[in-house]
Amino acid sequence: MKKLLxxxxxxxxxxxxxxxxxxxxxxxxxxSWTGGYIGLQAGYARGEGxxxxxSGPGFIETDPDGFLGGVYAGYNYQxxxxxxxxxxxxxVYANVDGSGQIFAAPGxxxxxxxxTEELKWSGAARLRLGYAVDRLLPYVAGGVAFGDIDTSSxxxxxxxxxxxxxxxxxxxxxxxxxxxxxxRAEYRYTDFGTESLPIGNIDLKINEVRFGIAYKF
Length: 217
Prior knowledge:
By secondary structure, this protein is mainly β.
């Protein structure tokens, strides 16, 4: 009888411990993407650039490329259905440049003529929309883009630049490695629009791959 009572007691204790563990698991906190964050990012950009010279019918295709790096910051809000909306600002220093042969007309190069185009820095203000899968957040983002673009040609004295305003769109994936440390991989396409400078009409479009790490508050 004593052995039976001892066995029943041990069984009840084990069941109580299992139930307590189950309750702890049920009430374990779920990660939330709501909150602000600030981080560092770096990446590579490749573009399609054009200079339509003002002094004649000449044109230059520069196709710049290079690396960039900078900071980003934003705020996310996770809704009960796991949709995440947010806003973000970023700015990067860029070493994205390229040069090309000056053509007087299609198929007719201007002898010795070379033109260059360089993106010195860029920034963006974007809205984000994502869907949280626990610690994974795939998202799309788009907004207004700014870029400092400088141009020059060995057929024109001096260099000419301005801050261009255009648009950007992209998609990415954030991963919460811890409750406060967020990793990011992102692709974006940016069109900085067209500006008229003394050297001619300038435009630049770039494709970028960026990687980032951020601290979530």
